[in-house]
Write a structure and sequence with these properties.
It is found in: Cytoplasm. By secondary structure, the protein is α+β, with helices and mostly antiparallel strands. It contains six helices and 17 strands. It folds into two domains: 7-131 and 268-287, Rossmann fold; 133-264, Tumour Suppressor Smad4 (Sandwich), CATH 2.60.200. Strand 4, helix 3 (77-87) and strand 5 form a beta-alpha-beta unit.
């Protein structure tokens, strides 16, 4: 068993702060290992408020101001996506503990926390590398973190009018969408927003992206699967003269006429995967894939 002292950045949210039993399991385990524990500032404050006492950690960080051996996400997939955005290009492996509902990304159950941390110290685990996409603009500054592990969605604002979305692939015109929006999804994000709009399930590491329209005006518009080495250019027309872009749920407002480019990022998100965990069994369990409702 490794005697190396490891460091961990811990992410959570105020709702998961109430799940103190499992959180204390993590903190107690790491303290016994003499690990360096760094906690996201907002989560730390919520825990201290809930417990009415200070928690002993090696440090508290804000944003992406940390550099550790591992990151731990305590929450659902939303918490995991936020942790991934803060890890960014650091290539720090993320341990996703599911305290939410579905949990595709955060796929380690609370009952597996100690076993998973044992695996970390024993070196008995795998790293699952997931592709990321990046949003760029030729005319506007993208103030939000521009990388997405799940998806980038082009959406109408809060009015009843559809938007017009012109799409080019590698400089060649593809199609014009009249719809409420368009979702550009990675394989990781294919079981999220894209799937709820009728998009295909993409197996991780398949090196493809999908374009899934949101409530298209025409019935002959269907999701399209592309190689992930393409460059996707998008331009939007809107009666309100602006539109929304959601990057893994982080929304920004952009002006009509803005030309957007989406392409594969130069780095990946690294996820700790327990040996014996299988993607296809996760599909069957989480989505009830192939389940016969008549039985």
């Amino acid at each position: 068993m490794s005697k190396k002292k490891l460091s961990f950045a811990i992410f959570g949210n105020d709702r998961q702060a109430l799940e103190t039993v499992h959180i204390w399991e993590v903190l107690d385990y790491l303290a016994k290992r003499e690990a360096e524990i760094y906690m996201e500032e907002g989560f730390y404050n919520d825990l201290c408020k809930d417990l009415n006492e200070d928690i002993h950690v090696s440090g508290v960080f804000d944003g992406a101001n940390f550099n550790t051996d591992y990151a731990i996400s305590l929450g659902g997939d939303g918490t995991f996506l936020r942790a991934a955005s803060k890890v960014g290009a650091k290539q720090i492996p993320i341990i996703g503990v599911n305290m939410g509902r579905l949990g595709f990304l955060a796929n380690i159950s609370p009952s597996e926390i100690k076993e998973t941390l044992d695996d970390i110290y024993n070196g008995s685990f795998d790293i699952d590398e997931r592709a990321i996409i990046k949003l760029e603009s030729e005319s506007e500054i993208i103030e939000a973190y521009p990388y997405a592990l799940n998806d980038i969605a082009i959406l109408k604002r809060d009015n009843a009018s559809m938007i017009t979305i012109y799409v080019n692939i590698n400089g060649e015109y593809l199609v014009t969408y009249l719809a409420d929006g368009l979702i550009v999804s990675t394989p990781t994000g294919s079981t999220a927003y894209s799937l709820s709009n009728g998009g295909p399930i993409l197996v991780p590491h398949s090196a493809i992206l999908s374009l899934t329209p949101v409530a298209p005006h025409s019935l002959n518009i269907r999701p399209i699967v592309l190689n992930d080495n393409v460059e996707i250019k998008i331009e939007v027309e809107s009666r309100s003269h602006n539109f929304l872009v959601a990057i893994d749920g982080r929304s920004i407002n952009l002006h009509e006429g803005t030309v957007l480019t989406i392409h594969k990022a130069p780095f990946v998100t690294r996820i700790v995967k327990r040996r014996g965990h299988n993607y296809y069994s996760t599909l069957r369990k989480k989505l009830m894939l192939g389940a016969d409702s008549r039985k």
